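Still learning folds. Look over my entry:

…
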Amino acid sequence: MEHHTNTGVRAVRTYEERPHGLFVARDFDRHPRVRHWQAHLLPDLDLVVCRYDFHGPREHDYYIDVAQVSREDGLWAVRDLYLDVVVHDGLGAEILDTDELLAARAADLIGEADLHRAVTVAHRTLSGLAHASYRLDDWLGAQGLRLDWCTPAETGVAGPLVEC
C-alpha cells in the first residue's frame, strides 16, 4: 500500500486490480495545489490516466502519462516515457513535454525504440480523443474500457464513482 516515486514513498488509500489494469488513489498531504490523486494503469495502452482533485479550480480533467506499465509477481511498475497528454474533457487535448523526451534521448536516458513508442502512443491517444470529441470516456468506451473514479469528501467531482 505504498506509492514509490522519484520524490519519495507515500501511503496509498486504494490499490485495486481491475480487468484493464490497476486503480490507485492517494491523498496529497501539504501540497499547495493538489489534495488527491487517482490513476488507472492501463498496460495494454501504455498509459496511466490520472485525475487530480485540486484545492482550487480544476486545472484539467485528466492528465495522461505515456508509460510502459508492467506487473510481475504482484508488483506493478511504471516507466515514464516522458510524453503526457492533458485533457479538458469535451473541449480539447494536447501533448506535453516533447522537450523532455528529446532531452532524455539526447542524454541517452531513453533508447530510440522507446522514443518512437512514446511518440506513437501519444499521437494515437490524441487522435483517438479527437475522434471522440475529446471525451475520454467515449474514446476508452469504444475500446471496451470503462474507468471508475472515486470522490474524496467535499470535492464534488462528477462521473462514475467507487469507494476510496
Remarks:
- Residues 112-131 form the longest helix (20 residues).
- The chain has one domain: 2-147.
- Residues 13 and 101 are 31 Å apart (CA to CA).
